[in-house]
Amino acid sequence: MKKCRYCGKELNSNFEFCSNECENSYRKIIEKDRQKIKYFMIGIILGFLVMFYGITLNSDFIIGIGIIVMGIDVVMLPFTTPETTTFLGYRKSKVVGRILGILLIAVGLWVGLV
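Structure for DUF2116 family Zn-ribbon domain-containing protein, as requested:
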């Protein structure tokens, strides 16, 4: 069964959206997200570099900070895979992305402080 690409409601037809409102909202948000992808990638790369630096120093604290940086990046810019968006809808996939970002921050705190 197909689901609306924006809200995730089940569809009985071959359309991709349940309403014109969902389609317009989806198109506007996708355009905004395309501009933010570069910042997402910079945050992930920065977190990875900090984590790699912590590995070379053998410092759990710095490794944890790198993981936290990536978690903050995912919370602020919760991009998910196209498969997740297709399965859940755009809005729900953003919520799942933020939850996973919070879990990543918790893992970073655990690695850095424990």
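The mean pLDDT is 90.
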